[in-house]
Amino acid sequence: MDVCPATVDMLMPAPLEREPDDSELVRAARRGDTASFEQLYLRHAGRIHGVVLRLVGYDHARAEDLVQEAFVQAWRKLESFHQQSRFGTWLYRLAVNCALMALRAGKTDPLDKSLEIEPGSESDTPFCAAERAELEVAIAQLPPRARSVLVLHDVEGWRHQDIAEELDMAIGTSKAQLHRARRLLRQALGPKERKS
Questions:
Q1: What CA–CA distances, in Å, run from 55 to 1, 48, 73, 124, 159?
Q2: DSSP letters of the chain?
Q3: pLDDT digits (tens, 9 = 90+) for 49-108
């Protein structure tokens, strides 16, 4: 039985359109294609928002402002992105820098430095939070430098050397701030005393 070529074409699924990768979108955005930059935004905004939100102590409104600021800077600096690293990595670094500059300028600390975490037991065991919300509150209450080091080291996986360079501190200070942040978290999340 002979099959008409037109029938075969109708039965064959249409080839799927390939999503452009970041480098293609960056090239198009450099030429002024705002739709391509919007695609980049949609791909990366979630991750960027997550790290910025943790850095600013879970101040959602401030995190949204800083994410927008980071993407505005990315649009303006797109020509300086030479694709030596992935776009997502470059954007992530830009957003972290934006959030850290806001912290250094004192523009961001929703709970203020005067808020202290209640002292608890001095346990050397790792902390364990039963609920994510409790952990987020405890992280938000950390002093800004300790919070920044904790988020960058324990959550984002940065090395102390990179943190020290980014936050303009000695490596030993970065390690001390991480130790302080972990101790304060253990105290905040440790066993609660029962009132009788």
A1: 68, 11, 18, 25, 16
A2: ----HHHHHHHSPPPPPPPPPHHHHHHHHHTT-HHHHHHHHHHHHHHHHHHHHHHTTS-HHHHHHHHHHHHHHHHHTGGG--SSS-HHHHHHHHHHHHHHHHHHTT---TT-TT--PPP-----SPP--SSHHHHHHHHHTS-HHHHHHHIIIIIT---HHHHHHHHT--HHHHHHHHHHHHHHHHHHHSPPPPP-
A3: 999 999 999 999 999 999 999 999 999 999 999 878 899 999 999 999 999 998 888 755
Q: How far apart are the first and last CA of the chain?
A: 89
Pair of tokens at residue 120: 């608890």
Residues 78 and 28: beta-carbon distance below 8 Å: no
Residues in the chain: 196
- Of 108, 112, 129, which Cα lies nearest the Cα of 190? 129
Q: How many Cβ atoms are within 10 Å of 100's Cβ, its own excluded?
A: 22
